[in-house]
Amino acid sequence: MVDVSELIRVADHRARVAALVGVMPVVEPPLADCLGLVLARDLVAPIALPPFDNSAMDGYAVRAADVAAVPVTLPVAQDIPAGRAHVSPLEPGTAHRIMTGAPVPAGADAVVQVEWTDAGTSAVRVDRAVAAGQNVRRAADDVAPGSVVLAAGAGLGPAQLGLAAALGFGALPVRRRPRVLVLSTGSELVGPGAPLEPGQIYESNGVMLAAAVREAGGEAELLRFVPDDVGRFHEAVGPRLGSFDLLLTSGGVSAGAYEVVKDALSGRGVEFTRVAMQPGGPQGAGRYRGVAVATLPGNPVSAQVSFEVFVRPALRAAMGFARVARPTAVARLSSPIGSPAGRTQFRRGAYDPVSGRVVTPVGGPGSHLLSALAVSDCLIEVPEDVTELAGGAEVTVHMLHGG
Ligand code: AMP
Ligand code: MG
């Protein structure tokens, strides 16, 4: 039996992994490569938006005073498509045919939409009056030049990239993606396509963890797997390690006889501990040859839950996100669950926000139950000191998407 008083708290191990990875340097990739990254400096508008007064409608630029009494027919003096560079001023008593986004001529103070006219090309009959300013989008209405449009720390989604493009930016200062080398260990592992001999299993953590890294915003290189052999471990890792921000291993860290990751990295800067958590008790973290290392246990559910709890927040912090946690919700349990004393338990669950915020535990606590994880959308947190929760009890759930 493990003495729970010797276990490391979940929050402490999380802080340790985050401190190891640190914050990524600032780079300036092209705008199209910035999706999902974090702005490293305030974005100051170099121009106004809109840059000039322009029409909000297809129609006719007029002086509102000239169409106050309708119907009225005005000569059409000019045609102004969008993109026209030079537009002559509007003479009183005339109209310019104008398209959406085209510059409003000097002298005009309103646009009559085409639907309110006979759509004439040499002369136009205006059937309804417009107020001064109607259908005109004023320069700087949206953005004043020199203003901060996005603050440092803003996450860059489609709308933010659209705004940056509208302001003429071709690249943005962002923190680069952390680069993660993913390596699975275990002599029982075989790759897809190979027949399974007795005692073998298909390797699944590598693909899963590399995908988790990418989903978090990082770059992953998958070394796939090595057998439980310290020499083979070093052969695989050694030549690649230097170009990464984090080595992420799975398997080979618990209390068995052939714990390859432990054997390879103990006493070399990586500390192996037990965290007060289920699943995912055995963990390691440290720095090997200058590179941050997080070693996750091998059971697939343990590996993935450990990634969510320890590694994902560290990667998000490294990218510059201020809020690194997944969205959480408070929900009522649909059925009772038990949990070991002295450990924070993360059970897999299906959360239904519609029918009164209910969460249904999926599968049991076993850390080999990968199919249950695959149909879950949240982790149900059972605090360290709680051993039993009745149906209907309130729990915190950590969503497995978003954030
Ligand atoms: P370990 O942490 O190495 O003792 O592994 C614990 C359990 O997880 C064992 O049943 C392993 O076979 C399994 N396991 C370890 N690594 C992987 C992997 N990459 N893919 C699938 N199962 C694994
Ligand atoms: Mg193993």
From TrEMBL:
Pfam family membership, one: MoeA_C
Xref: CDD domains: MoeA
Catalyzed chemical reaction(s): adenylyl-molybdopterin + molybdate = Mo-molybdopterin + AMP + H(+)
Annotated pathway: Cofactor biosynthesis; molybdopterin biosynthesis
EC number of the protein: 2.10.1.1
KW Transferase (keyword) present: yes
Cofactor: Mg(2+)
NCBIfam families reported for this sequence: Glp_gephyrin, molyb_syn
Similarity field: Belongs to the MoeA family.
UniProt protein name: Molybdopterin molybdenumtransferase
Species in which this protein is naturally found: Saccharothrix lopnurensis
